[in-house]
């Protein structure tokens, strides 16, 4: 037997929901998923390895199936929003959604949402915390180039991620650092879309910031206080600046970064300083421009 523990109401009531090992799920796309071993339990979800079969019966290999374990309205809305956004995206550096649905589990027959997605192994926050050291400069920059390429695809679709941080960048494995993808689109939104009244945007009731507080742009911080404050695609570029600095130095930039910490003796510092400008007009304007600038730095190292 397998099981997940879910929190079913804001008061903290939890339930242990058991189900047969090898449970089969059929998603919205017609794909079928046979659950295997438990991979990890995170803040909001429980993830299992699964065998994926296409609607025509073709075996498509392994993927991950995530069950939402926090069943309050806010997290259910964010989970549904993530599926909505991912269904509009297709990029090698963005997690792929193979299907989704809801399933009733346990003796209480509790309705639990789930999503099947790309299988990844290592998030970069976890990796740096375990190794207590930054990435080497070339790996840090190359990783950010791929993040830029993913964000450029989002911005081409008029989508803002709003939650860029090391924990949301995944390596396929520790050995395969070239194959990375961006995850967690729960608070992503379309440019110009007003989500201020949706539960996905409700953070005060959970006593948490709408995105990553240590990786927030000035616009996101202002938005957390006043939902009429504008936030556009340049907010994501600020967060990439924080990500780049963190990967290269293993430190979160607070204000202007320290040049002496730059392992490239200047180039990363100069890029990060531009990206972390308080005024969005002073930042590198697009993810495509940033990707080009970072590629030029790598060529000199």
Automatic annotation (TrEMBL):
Superkingdom per UniProt: Bacteria
InterPro entries: Kinase-like_dom_sf (IPR011009), Prot_kinase_dom (IPR000719)
Keyword Glycoprotein: no
SMART domains associated with the record: S_TKc
PROSITE patterns: PROTEIN_KINASE_DOM
The entry's keywords: ATP-binding, Kinase, Nucleotide-binding, Transferase
Domain Protein kinase: from-to ranges: 33-301
GO function terms (MF aspect): ATP binding; protein serine/threonine kinase activity
Presence of the UniProt keyword Magnesium in the record: no
Pfam families named in the record: Pkinase
Signal peptide range: none
Protein's name according to its UniProt entry: Protein kinase domain-containing protein
Species this protein is from: Lacipirellula parvula
């Amino acid at each position: 037997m397998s099981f997940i523990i879910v929190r079913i109401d804001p008061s903290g009531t939890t339930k242990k929901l058991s189900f047969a090992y090898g449970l089969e799920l059929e998603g919205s796309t017609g794909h079928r998923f046979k659950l295997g071993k438990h991979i990890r339990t995170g803040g909001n979800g429980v993830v299992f390895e699964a065998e994926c079969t296409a609607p025509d019966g073709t075996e498509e290999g392994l993927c991950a199936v995530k069950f939402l374990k926090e069943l309050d309205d806010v997290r259910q809305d964010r989970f549904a929003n993530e599926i909505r956004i991912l269904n509009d995206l297709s990029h090698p550096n963005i997690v792929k959604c193979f299907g989704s649905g809801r399933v009733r589990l346990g003796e209480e027959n509790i309705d639990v949402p789930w999503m099947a997605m790309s299988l990844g192994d290592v998030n970069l926050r976890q990796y740096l915390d375990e190794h207590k050291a930054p990435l080497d400069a070339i790996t840090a920059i190359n990783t950010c180039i791929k993040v830029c390429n993913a964000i450029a695809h989002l911005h081409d679709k008029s989508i803002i991620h709003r939650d860029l941080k090391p924990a949301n960048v995944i390596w396929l494995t520790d050995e395969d650092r070239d194959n990375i993808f961006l995850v967690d689109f729960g608070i992503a939104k379309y440019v110009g879309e007003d989500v201020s009244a949706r539960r996905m945007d409700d953070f005060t009731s959970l006593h948490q910031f709408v995105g990553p507080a240590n990786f927030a742009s000035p616009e996101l911080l202002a938005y957390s206080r006043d939902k009429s404050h504008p936030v556009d695609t340049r907010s994501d570029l600020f967060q990439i600046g924080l990500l780049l600095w963190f990967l290269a130095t293993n430190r979160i930039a607070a204000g202007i970064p320290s040049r002496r910490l730059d392992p490239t003796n200047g180039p990363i510092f100069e890029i990060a300083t531009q990206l972390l400008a308080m005024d969005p007009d002073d930042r590198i304007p697009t993810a495509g421009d940033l990707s080009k600038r970072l590629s030029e730095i790598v060529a000199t190292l």
